[in-house]
Design brief:
alpha+beta; Beta-Lactamase; Helix Hairpins; 4 domains; 5-stranded antiparallel beta sheet; 5-stranded mixed beta sheet; 15 helices; binds adenosine-5'-diphosphate
Length: 471
């Protein structure tokens, strides 16, 4: 549109429409002899000029309002008025601006609502995907992008999740327009199982969304269920074995060995060791469940690390003497106190030093070394930069552990050599207890070992506050 030309054309047209009836009136007046031709022509020209000015004023105001409406469509809300000359032009201008401001406000509110909705979808912990009827991904929330990789938009869902049963559920939802619930497994890159809900929208959204697919990752829940089942099976097996042995010996003592004093003494010693292992097993199971129950609340007290380690060495003296092992302590002054629960830390170091004595060579030396360090594995639950860490390492010379076993060593009942562990009175729970105590203390555990050379178990704990601040 070209407003000036438009104004001229409209003014010419309006003036023509106004001056024609005036001209006809003058012709009639002239014909009736009320006015002569000269004055009639002058009066007609004058009145036509007045009409032209009036038409120009109105038309220019209206075109001004139109131009304003046209410009406002893409601009922000504002209060400026038009420069209209007539009242009606000014009122129209204000009305157009009000309408426009209302529309702008509504648009902004929609944008805010949309941003809020996108934010809410991104905040959902589970993956959520918006799909077209043809399974094309319109939008994926942050959890979906994290799980299935970025750039999901516009891709075919079949290329992202290769599950025939999921695709069948989507087709059913499209055909029947009814929500579908199902479970499916994705085999690659690692096997994961999901619960899925496919919900068709009553009518497609403007962006093309016709279906919403919400997923819940069941992998860890199913793994935890499996672990619970395995744990019960393992614990029962661990208890059943010594029980069966005890029952066997009781029958032998009642029967064939009834009057054999020497055999009775020998069998009673074996029975005692089995009964003690069962008692240790029950103690360890109870410790494990107690520590697990408190694992979400880290201990806040201070513990005397040097005292704890010395106490552990004294308690295990009989075991060390039996194997002719020397336990050497090297606790630096800066490592004397840590944040922690003294009873749990005692149990932790008892398990580690006892293992070092058990699996170390006869007549070897076990060294316990504690010092302050600035570096620790990234898993510690506090800011190393502020406090540093106290590293306590327990080193033995002996069996060592082949590398492939290291990642699973802290699992319950996991043993490198089951027969040897049982023969040494082990329950298979010692390192699982260590792991949970370390985790409750928000610390870290590092295992370094070489088969045939020996192992070093290093525990990282948080130093007591007064030490870290130097007060
Ligand atoms: P156990 O009661 O069998 O000692 P743990 O949970 O304490 O159970 O240890 C699990 C397994 O890890 C042990 O059976 C043993 O095979 C191995 N292990 C633990 N500590 C050591 C060590 N210091 N040297 C060699 N092997 C070890």
């Amino acid at each position: 549109m070209n407003p000036p030309t438009d104004i001229v054309a409209r003014v010419v047209k309006g003036t023509f429409l106004g001056s024609v009836p005036i001209g006809i009136a003058f012709i009639l007046l002239g014909a009736l002899g009320h006015i002569s031709a000269g004055p009639a022509a002058i009066a007609w020209a004058g009145l036509s000029a007045v009409v032209a000015v009036a038409v120009w004023v109105f038309v220019s105001d209206l075109v001004g309002v139109l131009t304003l409406a046209e410009q406002d469509r893409n601009t922000d809300e504002h209060e400026q008025t038009t420069s209209a000359r007539t009242n009606i032009g000014r009122e129209l201008g204000v009305a157009v601006q009000r309408l426009d401001n209302t529309a702008t406000r509504r648009l902004k509110r929609r944008e805010r609502d949309f941003d809020g909705l996108e934010g809410a979808l991104d905040a959902l912990p589970g993956p959520l995907l918006q799909l077209t009827n043809e399974r094309q991904i319109v939008r994926a929330n942050r959890a979906a992008e994290k799980m299935f990789g970025g750039n999901l938009e516009d891709r075919d869902l079949a290329g992202v999740m290769r599950s025939p049963s999921l695709l069948a559920a989507l087709s059913r939802a499209v055909e029947e327009r009814v929500g579908q619930d199902m479970q499916f497994v994705l085999p690659a890159p690692i096997e994961r199982s999901f619960a899925a809900r496919v919900e068709p929208l009553s009518k497609p959204a403007r962006d093309g969304t016709s279906l919403v697919l919400a997923l819940v990752d069941l992998t860890s829940i199913q793994r935890a269920d499996q672990m619970r089942v395995d744990f019960v099976a393992n614990a029962s097996h661990e208890i059943r074995t010594p029980l069966a042995t005890l029952i066997g010996f009781i029958e032998t003592l009642r029967g064939p060995a009834k009057d054999d004093a020497e055999a009775r003494e020998k069998f009673l010693t074996i029975m005692e060791s089995h009964a003690q292992r069962m008692a240790r097993l029950v103690d360890d199971l109870l410790s494990l469940s107690r520590i697990e129950m408190n694992e979400h609340t880290p201990p806040s007290g201070e513990a005397d690390l040097a005292g704890i380690i010395e106490g552990v060495r004294d308690q295990l003296e009989w075991q060390a003497t039996e194997r002719n092992v020397t336990v050497e302590l090297d606790i630096k002054a800066e490592a004397f106190a840590v944040l922690g629960d003294a009873d749990e830390l005692t149990q932790l170091f008892q398990n580690l030093v006892s293992n070092a004595i058990k699996y170390g060579d006869l007549g070897s030396t076990v060294t316990v070394h504690a010092e302050a360090v600035v570096d620790a594995p990234g898993t510690v639950g506090w800011r190393l930069a502020d406090h540093g860490a106290i590293a306590i390492s327990i080193q033995d010379r002996g069996d060592g552990i082949p590398r492939e076993h290291l990642p699973r060593l802290t699992e319950r009942f996991y043993r490198v050599d089951t027969a040897r562990s049982r023969e040494l009175g082990g329950t298979g729970l010692g390192l699982a207890i260590v792991k949970h105590i370390v985790s409750r203390h928000r610390g870290a555990l590092n295992i370094d070992s070489e088969a045939g050379v020996g192992s070093t178990f290093t525990v990282y704990l948080q130093p007591a506050q007064d030490q870290s601040t130097g007060t």
